Amino acid sequence: MSFGANRIVSLGQARVRAISLALVLAAANIVPAQSAGEDFAGLVDIGGGRKMYLECRGSGSPSVILVAGLRASADDWTTTMPGKPNVFSAVAAFTRVCAYDRPGTPVGEAPSRSDKVVQPTTAADAVADLHALMVAAGIATPAVLVGHSYGGLIVRLYASTYPDEVSGMVLVDALTEGLREAETQEEWAIQRTLINGDIRERLTLYPALEQLDTDRSFDQLLAGAPIKPMPLIVLSADRPWGPQIPALIANGTLPPDIPPDFAYVTDRAQKQAQAKLAALVPGAKDITDTNSGHEIHKDQPQLVTDAIREVVDAVR
């Protein structure tokens, strides 16, 4: 009898604690892991006193994880040219899709929705964060990973580090160690500056802004295990970057000491680097006719969506 009474009291206390926790989470806009099966946008506690922003929509398997480029938030996948469907919404129509904010990725003029960390970071840091986020949010694996630019580097290292959690990949004009390999030491020193851009003024306004230790990230990838065979589509920009350099220097996007003709070096090296990506796994599909600049997911969202659907169908 006393056991039953104690059990009723314990259950009542547990229910009060659960309700209190739900109210606290709701007030802080933190998404508990058990809610990850529903469409939502909010914060997920990944442990260590840190929270990261995650947005998921749609249903179906495999899940698709969209990984944005340097200093780009989850919103990068819902931004597109007028009249064109965005990749996030299009993918949500045929399977579950999630995008997230890495630390230091602003949303417009606002700070990142994810807690800040010490900068610069590396691809290994990003992989550790993404893994913690997926576990905490209860995202089903293996998943299809889609990475744009720096996100492509993260996706590849994730597949190397957690091979059982990745069933397919789409690389969207991905940043790759092949870029460093295709350039001289002098060229690479300039290229490394271009990758991070001229962010001196932005750092004064937002010191927590994402910065990348490119060389360490490449070395981490080279030290990892080869990627296992899986469906893979590589999308590469085909619009030359060279003619854009003078305007980018003039508007302050690039440092003024960048040689005006250096983008032609980048175009040559990037073409060589992208060609190597298609050799990562047997049967990979290499799409070079994209009619797009670097941001293929914005210039040609349907092309990226079709590539994701093709990989999802192959996994299924």
User: What is the average per-residue confidence, as pLDDT, rounded to a whole number?
Assistant: 86
Structural class: alpha/beta
- Strand tally is 8
The top-level CATH class of the largest domain is: Alpha Beta
Assess the beta-strand content as a share of residues. 5-15%
The CATH topology of the largest domain turns out to be Rossmann fold
Q: Main sheet: which strands, in order across?
A: 1-2-4-3-5-6-7-8
Oligomer: single chain
Low-confidence stretches: 1-36
Rounded to the nearest angstrom, the radius of gyration is 21 Å
CATH architecture grouping of the largest domain: 3-Layer(aba) Sandwich
Helix content: 40-55%
Question: What's the SSE pattern?
Answer: HEEEHEHEHEHHHHEHHEHH
The count of helical stretches stands at 12
Q: Could you tell me how far the N terminus lies from the C terminus, measured between alpha carbons in angstroms? A: 54 Å
Shape: globular
What's the domain count?
Answer: 2
Molecular structure report:
With 316 residues, the chain is α/β, with parallel strands linked by helices. The chain folds into two domains: 1-30; 39-315, 3-Layer(aba) Sandwich (Rossmann fold), CATH 3.40.50. Helix content is 42%, strand content 14%. It is built from twelve helices and eight strands. The protein has helices at 2-28, 87-92, 123-137, 150-161, 178-181, 185-196, 200-205, 214-223, 245-250, 262-277, 296-299, 301-315, and strands at residues 40-47, 50-57, 64-67, 97-100, 143-148, 166-172, 232-235, 285-287. An eight-stranded mixed sheet has the order 1-2-4-3-5-6-7-8, with helices on both faces. Strand 1 (40-47) and strand 2 form a beta hairpin. Helix 3 packs across helix 4 and helix 4 (150-161) runs parallel beside helix 8. The model is unreliable at 1-36 (pLDDT under 50).
